[in-house]
From TrEMBL:
Protein name (Swiss-Prot/TrEMBL): TetR family transcriptional regulator
SUPFAM superfamilies reported in the protein's UniProt record: Homeodomain-like
Gene3D superfamilies: Tetracycline Repressor, domain 2
UniProt cross-references to InterPro entries, sorted A to Z: DNA-bd_HTH_TetR-type_CS, Homeodomain-like_sf, HTH-type_TetR-like_transc_reg, HTH_TetR
Pfam annotation, one family: TetR_N
The keyword Magnesium is assigned to this record: no
DNA-binding stretch(es), residue numbering of this chain: 37-56
């Protein structure tokens, strides 16, 4: 698939967006989420409020700004790797989503420093945890759709997507640092396999 040319305008837009994200995370790290305003983010990024709202609907959205792109990559991975219909094998469907997560995580937009700030803010703010849960639910809906396109029955696809979501939420809850997220996620998936073996025995 051909990508559109990388124009000067596109580069300027990416730069402005990146400056807003960087400024927001700096301020959130310094003052917490509730004490930071859109105006202060715009001022730190050296842009106007109008420019801020060109890219983000509110300050919460800055924290989850790249979720859509990450889910796009995961869905593309599922469609590309599922060369044969998955069928009703829940273990295979969950495993494919785990692979998609691992394959796309190195391309995540958030730096380790920004991820650390996000983990801290989620621990501190009920409002942000609610927004995070909403983004996770939306991700599960889209991933279930990708699994259905890959030949998975809808009931298995929905359960697989929400099971994968539960593993991610567990890893997020138990991770004290961003670096711990991957190992914690592996632990959650290992526990699932143990449950499957126990049920089969």
């Amino acid at each position: 698939m051909q990508h559109p040319p990388d124009t000067l305008h596109a580069r300027k837009r990416r730069k402005a967006r990146a400056m807003i994200v960087s400024a927001a995370f700096q301020l959130f790290a310094e003052h917490g989420f509730d004490n930071v305003t859109v105006a202060s983010i715009a001022e730190r990024a050296e842009v106007g409020r109008t420019t801020f709202f060109r890219y983000f609907g509110d300050k919460q959205q800055v924290l989850f700004a790249d979720d859509d792109a990450e889910v796009d990559r995961m869905c593309a991975y599922v469609r590309e790797k599922a060369t044969q219909p998955i069928g009703d094998d829940l273990h295979t469907a969950v495993g494919l989503l785990r692979e998609a997560n691992a394959a796309t995580r190195p391309h995540a937009a958030l730096s380790p420093a920004h991820s650390a700030v996000l983990v801290r803010l989620l621990a501190e703010s009920t409002e942000l945890r609610s927004r995070y849960l909403l983004t996770q639910h939306q991700r599960a809906v889209r991933l279930a759709g990708a699994l259905v396109e890959a030949g998975t029955p809808e009931n298995v696809a929905v359960l697989a997507a929400h099971t994968a979501m539960a593993c991610e939420l567990t890893a997020m809850r138990l991770s004290e640092t961003p670096e711990a997220f991957g190992p914690r996620l592996d632990e959650a998936h290992l526990l699932l396999r143990d449950i499957g073996r126990q049920a089969a025995s």
